[in-house]
Amino acid sequence: MSLLVLAYPTIEKKDFNWIQSIRKDHDERYYKIVNPHFTFVFPVNNCEYNQLSEHVKKVTRKFGTFFFVLRCAQIVKDSFSDYTDVFLIPEEGYRLFVKLHDALYSGILEKELRLDIPFIPHLGIANSLDPLKCKSLADKLNSKNIEIVGAINKLDIVSYEENNVKSLGSIVLQ
Q1: Where are the beta strands (DSSP E) in 8-138?
Q2: How far apart are CA 103 and CA 45, in angstroms?
Q3: pTM for the whole structure
């Protein structure tokens, strides 16, 4: 079992439904197992829930709720598989995602940080073994005036095992 730290964004229902409609048709890997989210801590196996929870609580004391705006789709080659992904990238709020991510990878998570993989704050909406399919979708999305305004007001610690994501607890950003 792996532990992750995710943020399920607070967004308008119409935006959630639109994202889910895209994911239903184009997210071959995650649509059925997890709601739209931002990943702050990627899978870790060398940490117990209580340790991770205390660490996240300590780190997030310096962070409050923050806002973002998604306006751009970007394709990114998955670092761990043959898939290519389509991400919605925060145009506004980007630096806060990076600062929170970097702060979380301190202390007990310091050795878990993958410096060989760039951190790109994102909400994944599609993936495929065919990169051209992803490019076509990203181009189509970018030809529209996407503007999804949202907030990150809590982080969830989740377990991931055998294609099952389960929330173990939430930490509210004050």
Answers
A1: 10-11, 38-44, 66-77, 84-92, 123-128
A2: 19
A3: 0.95
Contact 66, 164 (CB under 8 A): no
* pLDDT tens sequence across 125-146: 999 999 999 999 999 999 999 9
pLDDT in tens, 11-43: 999 999 999 999 999 998 999 999 999 999 999
CATH of the domain at 50: 3.90.1140.10
- List of long-range contacts for 170-174, beta carbons under 8 Å, 24+ apart: 171/53, 171/56, 171/57, 171/60, 173/60, 173/63, 173/64, 173/65, 173/66, 174/60, 174/61, 174/64, 174/65
Tokens, residue 22: 């895209």
Q: Structural domain tally of the chain?
A: 1
